[in-house]
Amino acid sequence: MKIYSLNIPDVLCFEPEIFSDNRGFFFESYNKKKYDLAFGRKINFVQENQSESSLGTLRGLHYQIPPLAQSKLVSVVEGEVFDVAIDIRKSSPTFGKHVSVVLSEKNKKQLYIPEGFAHGFLTLSKSAIFQYKTNKFYSSDLERGIIWNDPHLNILWPIEKHPILSAKDASNKPFIFSEFFK
């Protein structure tokens, strides 16, 4: 498995070794020992979620504030998405910066997004099944969001028209009014 960081060192991309033959393929999608070694500490994922989204759907940019701030390990089971993580840690040298990667059923990449990051994705295929593990349980009281097209973030979403948004995501706050991490 290849493990590398993107332009923000705390965000890791995992690219599994895929074994293919005439029967299909096999790859190791999760191995706690290998992931703990890559993270440099033990992370216990406590919840796993899946969502299905149609072409042009944008989910995010979500995060939870302490004490239930979440780290996530995200991947795509079916389809393709443009995935984004934004550093919202005020003390970080990369505060307000973002990284993006295309995750798909074909490349089988996973993205680790630590606590202190907002996260979202745009569906690029007809539909996509998105899967993610979290290290803390979901709390609607502690969930926050940043509006997807905030000009301060300068995210170049690969989209030609306005994305499909939930009512909640359409009402997310601008970056400058968001709650940040220390």
TrEMBL record:
Pfam families, sorted: dTDP_sugar_isom (PF00908)
Catalysed reactions, semicolon-separated: dTDP-4-dehydro-6-deoxy-alpha-D-glucose = dTDP-4-dehydro-beta-L-rhamnose
UniProt keywords, alphabetically: Isomerase
Record bears the keyword Protein biosynthesis: no
Active-site residues from the entry: 62, 132
The organism's place on the tree of life at top rank: Bacteria
UniProt GO molecular function: dTDP-4-dehydrorhamnose 3,5-epimerase activity
GO biological process terms on file: dTDP-rhamnose biosynthetic process; polysaccharide biosynthetic process
InterPro entries according to UniProt: RmlC-like (IPR000888), RmlC-like_jellyroll (IPR014710), RmlC_Cupin_sf (IPR011051)
UniProt-listed SUPFAM superfamilies: RmlC-like cupins
The enzyme's E.C. designation: 5.1.3.13
Residues the UniProt record annotates as site (Participates in a stacking interaction with the thymidine ring of dTDP-4-oxo-6-deoxyglucose): 138
GO CC list: cytosol
Biochemical pathway: Carbohydrate biosynthesis; dTDP-L-rhamnose biosynthesis
Isomerase as UniProt keyword: yes
Family affiliation: Belongs to the dTDP-4-dehydrorhamnose 3,5-epimerase family.
General function of this protein: Catalyzes the epimerization of the C3' and C5'positions of dTDP-6-deoxy-D-xylo-4-hexulose, forming dTDP-6-deoxy-L-lyxo-4-hexulose.
Quaternary structure and partners: Homodimer.
Annotated protein name in UniProt: dTDP-4-dehydrorhamnose 3,5-epimerase
UniProt organism field: Candidatus Methylopumilus rimovensis
Phylogenetic lineage: Bacteria, Pseudomonadati, Pseudomonadota, Betaproteobacteria, Nitrosomonadales
